[in-house]
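User: What would this chain look like folded?
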Amino acid sequence: MAGRGAACHPLAMANDDAPLSQPTPESQSPRRNRVRNQTRRDSILRGLRAGGLLATAMAGAWAWWQAWRNPGMLGPHGSGLDPLSLSFILLLAAATVWAFYACIVEPADSPRPRRTLLLAALLVLIPSTIAVVLLGRYWWQRSQAIGLPYPVLSQLAVVSAGIGVTVTAGLLLHLERGSRTPSKQLLRRRPTRTTTAVAVLTIAVATAALALPANTFQPRSTQVTATEAEPIPEILGNHVLWQHVFNGDETDVRGIISGTAGPIAITNHGAQGLDPHTGETTWSYTRPAHTSVFNRMYDTSCQGAEQAACHAVLTPDRSTLIVRYDAGPSNALLVALDTMTGEVRFEHMYHFVGDNRFSWDRGPNVQVTDNVLVIDQEILSITDGSHMGSLPRTDLPDCPGDSSCSNYDLDSEWVFSPFFQGGHSTLILGATCRYYDASGFETWCELILAPDSDPAATMNVSGIVPSDSSIATRGPTVVDGWTVRYRDPEVAGQELDREQKQGRLKEDALANLDLPIEVVSLDALSGTDTDQQPVPLAYPGRPMANRATRTLGISGTENVGERYQHPVLSDVFNPVDAQVYPIEELTEQATGLGYLDTLAVTQPNDVRGTGLSGWKSLDVLNPDGSVALHLDYEDITDPADIAAADGTLAYYHDGYLVPAPGVVALVYDRAVLQDNDDGANNFTARQTVVVGLG
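Assistant: Here's the prediction, encoded as structure tokens.
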């Protein structure tokens, strides 16, 4: 072979006897440079091909896992060709071009023109690049819509980029390979340092691209150190201590609730604690995403004082607050916050799969005790969000006799406790409630209870008195772990059956029958706290389904409705001291938490009918309609706000009181009222004002 090679050399053929001349550096340098450049280019292309292939596999596996955990996230979100389908078509076009060159175009004996290589590369690279841009833009749009990183789409964008890099590099290697170089020989070549470095760099870039979306739309939070909680004031003060104004922008509030250290504002994007002495923000938690109601069945009743309670879940001891963010059509992000310090206890992304996927008009069934959070069947520790097990499936009690029943269980559309609470250590796994007449008022419930430490140890408790409220909040009512029960469930059940058979239950049963009732602790019923004794009530009635109060109101037998802007009550049970207070006694003494919960804030009678421009004062009413406190415009409006307003500051909603540790907060809505030439009123600059009374 050496002799043949020497004979074919031009200098050798001129003088066969002359010794073989060595190529000069000048003659060999261009060839060596071409070979060196070709080798380096091949190494880079092989590195890109290997790295792109591994990145595609890695991102594809992650995308598959995300799609499995988030069913429905890739569904169409509008009419027409969505970016996901268009990206698939573009990738299919790129794969078709690659298959044409790889399977039909044979390797050439001489180097191909650069324009041929460039054309082939562009025919593959351009469609895949457009697919990456479309998927990335689609991910950004969907993420902005929910305020959270949208799953699957960002991983698919990396998959598209990996496919584009892989097929482009593979195509160029194929077209630059000589016809006499077997492809198997290329595959058997050991990777060079350049190949390895490029492959590692490609995988690193893909890994960074996969990790980047998780770092977007991050929450912002501030925390404070824990302090000793102050008691809730016993009386309603008549002095304004401070004001905190929430403008109608990103801090627009859903409402105010009471925590363990003072008032808490539930905002459109999170929550923040207020100092009971100054009204300044102490701790806060906010996200770009919007907070949402825990069950949309409550939308009609989420007004005024109860609006915040629909957007927040409090444990019975009020130490933990849970807010919810919608994260797409099949996900919900739940965030648990310490109400004293604002510390994030945990964040939990709940995925709805199978029968548990919620429709637009409902969310996951959520229930809390002081120890656990239950989401549908999943049990999480309230401390750190760790998984503690699943609730057992239970069979609801049969509906006896000729009565009709409503069922409340894990699959029910109705969430049946205020603040979505169970007991302090007791879970409500289900309930069956009977109603005997066409009015639909339920008169008897049987609960399935279980300790939160052992959910399998279920027990049935009958004779629970349901709420007097509308269909949106009917069923058992629980406040601070207490509910109402017939004192003798067996006798009460027989009496209700007898009256029903005789057709005498034409109205609310408890308004016609003298059936003694008592307030009972769920923990005592489940056996987790045997020290809590039942507290008898003097008059028959129903528990009031008011999710904004800390006490349990019992409706009077006068009627089922409202008087002077709040329900008619006969008694109020205070869980703090486990005492029942008649409503007349509370009004006369004008003191205590039970009294504060009975007060209503409304427009004064002397300005009714004068239009919004004349509504410049508020009255706090006792249950009997008498005025407990009158607040003039100047009392609750900062002069600086009046001067800064481009128009008239007017109220447009009745307010409400929030008794909280250290302060009684008055909450009301106002806006700048501008008078037009045609006499119409326009609202601008809507605000929610929190006033500390002392």
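Confidence is low (pLDDT under 50) at residues 1-22, 355-361, 559-565. If you want, I can go into more detail on any region.
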